[in-house]
Amino acid sequence: MRVLSLNCGSSSVKCQLFETSLEQIEANSDRHLGRVLVERIGTEEAVVRSGTEEIKRRIADHHEAIGVAVGMLSQKPHEIEAVGHRVVHGGERFSAPVELDETVAREIEELSELAPLHNPENLQGYRAARAVLPRARHVAVFDTAFHHTLPPKAYVYGLPDEVWRRHKVRRYGFHGTSHRYVAGRYAQIHRRSVRDYKLITCHLGNGCSVSAVERGQSVDTSMGFTPLEGLLMGTRSGDIDAGAVLHIMGKEQLTPAEMDILLNRRSGLYGLSTASNDMRTLLDLCHGGHAAARLAVDAFCYRAKKYLGAYHAVLNGCDAVIFTGGIGENAPEIRAEICGSLDALGIRLDPARNQAAIGVEANIAAEGASVEVWVVPTDEGLVIARDTLHCLAGVGEP
């Protein structure tokens, strides 16, 4: 089956085309047929990237963007039988992929208040893709689904029972497709079942989260009710005292919408450094003696280190720590800082291995360390394609 994996943002579309089947999934032989990224949708100079090719042209909307991407990926669009859509928030309603129609789309729409920056855009992409590929079947794959195995003690906040239940304010967790992929890939590398391992998976990019994965199931994760909680991120604050939020709102006379922008768009690495949300830029600034950039990077690494320690305790020890995401896969200096002085937990890096592991699968732990440390590039598009096939075939993930 040819499956298009689709991830739609407000002004971007990421498309990947796969050829897969139940047998190919079992043999890990799915074929990746191409990738197209469209950015700055709605402008005269939208950017279309495919491999090494880059085109600038006018693209009016998501319908046109998906049409352009599909045309670049396949000379026979009618051969694309299914489209898997990344949907950020499934709430308590959706714990597994589901075939999309307007009834399901309306249910997802009702969850938009939980992810106002994401779910509406995901649905906009679904409707545009259905117009471009009307014969294909469409499936929603949820970021939150992997974390439905969190026990109540891990997902509740200390709020009045009737309040959190009425408003569904609880930890949901995100980046589920990435955490699931790298945990499964680690087991695959070792030719064993993911159920044999206790793992700490670290997705570090512009958005960041850590998960404790026990025997293949997420038992805790750093992101919470929204993707704002947890680690310091590119532009998000991560963990912050709720009282501090109220204090700032009062002193600065901010509305909830304005405070939302401050916490999600103006904080994190960008806010602390006063310079950038890009880790590569910040590391260059650090090497040049930029004090605010140094503070931002140090705080980023310290927060991640704390979560490693916490989840080591949750799991009562772990077999491996896995780094993924743009920073996790490509920043040896950050991995070294996070894992430094964790010898008591059995976590020690080999400096040469760590330095050489940029964008590739590699064990970067020191010889004799009791906990393996791996870099595993994530492949959320492949997870979406596989989940789409499993959903339409009526079988669950093996």
Strand arrangement in the largest pleated sheet: 5-4-3-2-1-6-8-7
Radius of gyration: 21 Å
Sheet-strand content, in percent, reads: 15-25%
Profile the largest sheet.
8 strands, mixed
**Secondary-structure element pattern, one letter each:** EEHEEEHEEHHEHHHEEEHHHHHEHHHEEH
State the helix count.
16
The top-level CATH class of the largest domain is Alpha Beta
Distance between the termini: 18 Å
Low-confidence stretches: none
Net shape = globular
Q: What is the fold-level CATH name, i.e. the topology of the largest domain?
A: Nucleotidyltransferase, domain 5
Strand-pairing-aware structural class: alpha/beta
Number of domains: 2
CATH architecture of the largest domain: 2-Layer Sandwich
Description:
- The chain is an alpha/beta fold.
- The chain folds into two domains: 141 residues, 2-Layer Sandwich (Nucleotidyltransferase, domain 5); 184 residues, Nucleotidyltransferase, domain 5.
- Helices cover 40% and strands 21% of the residues.
- It has an eight-stranded mixed β-sheet with strand order 5-4-3-2-1-6-8-7, with helices on both faces. Strands 11-10-9-12-14-13 form a six-stranded mixed β-sheet, sandwiched between helices.
- Strand 9 and strand 10 form a beta hairpin.
- The relative contact order is 0.12.
Helix and strand layout, with pairings?
Blueprint: E1 2-8, E2 12-19, H1 22-27, E3 31-39, E4 43-50, E5 53-59, H2 62-73, E6 80-87, E7 98-99, H3 102-110, H4 119-132, E8 137-142, H5 152-155, H6 161-167, H7 176-189, E9 198-204, E10 208-214, E11 217-221, H8 242-252, H9 256-265, H10 268-273, H11 279-287, H12 291-315, E12 320-324, H13 325-330, H14 332-339, H15 351-356, E13 362-363, E14 372-375, H16 380-393
Parallel strand pairs: 1-6, 6-8, 9-12, 12-14
Antiparallel strand pairs: 1-2, 2-3, 3-4, 4-5, 7-8, 9-10, 10-11, 13-14
Helix pairs in contact: 2-4, 11-12, 12-14
